[in-house]
Amino acid sequence: MIKKVLIANRGEIAVRVMRSCREMGIRTVAVFSEVDRTARHVLYADEACLIGPAASKESYLNIEKIIAAAKMHQADAIHPGYGFLSENSTFARRCKEEGIIFIGPSPETMDRMGDKISARKCMKAAGVPVVPGTEKGLQSVEEAIGISCQIGFPVMLKASMGGGGKGIRLVCSEEEVKEAYLNAKSESLSSFGDDTVYIEKFVEEPHHIEFQILGDMYGNVIHLCERECSVQRRNQKIVEESPSPFVTPELRAKMGEAAVAAAKAVNYIGAGTIEFLVDKHRNFYFLEMNTRLQVEHPITEEVLGVDLVKEQINVANGFPLRLKQEDIKQRGHAIECRICAEDTEFNFMPSPGIIRQLIEPNGIGVRIDSYVYEGYEIPVHYDPMIGKLIVWAVTREYAIERMCRVLHEYKITGVKNNISYLRAIMGTPDFVQGKYDTGFIAKNGENLQKRLSQSNTETENIALIASYIDYLMNLEENKPNGETDNRPISRWRAFGLHKGVLRI
Hints:
Elements: E1 4-7, H1 11-23, E2 27-33, H2 40-44, E3 47-52, H3 63-72, E4 77-79, H4 89-97, E5 101-102, H5 107-114, H6 116-125, H7 141-151, E6 155-159, E7 168-171, H8 177-192, E8 197-201, E9 207-215, E10 221-233, E11 236-242, H9 249-265, E12 270-278, E13 284-290, H10 297-304, H11 308-316, E14 333-340, E15 342-343, E16 349-350, E17 353-354, E18 357-359, E19 366-370, E20 377-378, E21 385-393, H12 396-409, E22 411-413, H13 419-426, H14 429-432, H15 440-443, H16 445-478, H17 491-499
Parallel strand pairs: 1-2, 1-4, 2-3, 4-5
Antiparallel strand pairs: 6-7, 6-8, 9-10, 9-12, 10-11, 11-14, 12-13, 14-21, 15-16, 17-20, 18-22, 19-21
Helix pairs in contact: 4-5, 7-8, 12-13, 13-16, 16-17
């Protein structure tokens, strides 16, 4: 039985895993880099271990240091979270060699699904639909041009290894192939240590739909329905929801069956995700398998009432699945927004710095998975995601209304962030009506910027009002005794009263 878990990660996912462990009576060990000494996951854990400098390759990506920390603290198991070493089969093997339970699938499964070319072949053999494309890595620009012309534009050039939107290029003409090919290979090599790229036919007006799956050591596999992940910028998700407003009950059943078949084909153990592309005619194609917990897993938890981390740990303990497919019933609607320290006006560039003020929303149906606090400095070395804001309501309409409310309440100062941008998304007609695909951001770019400008103007007005109030209060405090205030109420003050700012 697992009694102590080392979390080989940082940030919100480390805290999120620790919370489930604490509820299960399992002790936790945090690992941290030098720059993360004061991070929340370090403060929350029962034990903590410094593993190296800020650079990921010398800390969170250093397999031997993490294994040494697990042995030193006598951890029974390691939970990898997402990112870093979560899909690294070498890491999973080293855990096995050292007698440490890896809370995730087997190294063999990770090998088969980590290489996207190999995964495509495996899925075709299992009868799961795949997007037309190459069955091996490209060897030259000339080959890339020839195959692209054969398949027909537009096409996607994609890295065989990795994920997170890296090593991916959309190519719409023959003239674009060379640059896209070279850039995709270069980015793939720097991000994953492998420059193998392949070609897939680009599915126009696609929906990015993923199915959560769970498997145990006894061959049992179930799916936990879908998540709509089509609101993306730079091929990275920023808003997810469940159920999908696009998926019909009939399509859900077909895709769920395909997801289970995909998992069984590789003897999947633990929690994982099968990602699909679905075209406008509701034809679906296998995209990839993520052999780990997804960032967006909370919305599945909210609509199903299941703690996926606890399920992972139970499977790792050797227990059979506690749930059967007939137990899986979606209830209500959940939406997740990724809160990031980034400059939405400057191509979403990361915006590290010190959080000066933090006001988090709360209330019925509100969940925040985060790791920051006032005074915490977001480091430059890692992903800029601050946390995830999740809401649940009985209907999609009510969930959108709730998300609008909590995004209005969410205040972060000291670093640029995307909260205003997310508010703009929530008010965009295409999103409200559920009529959107992965081209949503590009299609609604002008509308979003307009809404964002309006939001920024309101923020500036409030700041000016607050300054004026401060000025008035200073005058009140410093005026001679007995002096009456005969100043007229200004338009600023009237505006502030109208907006409720001056309710003091």
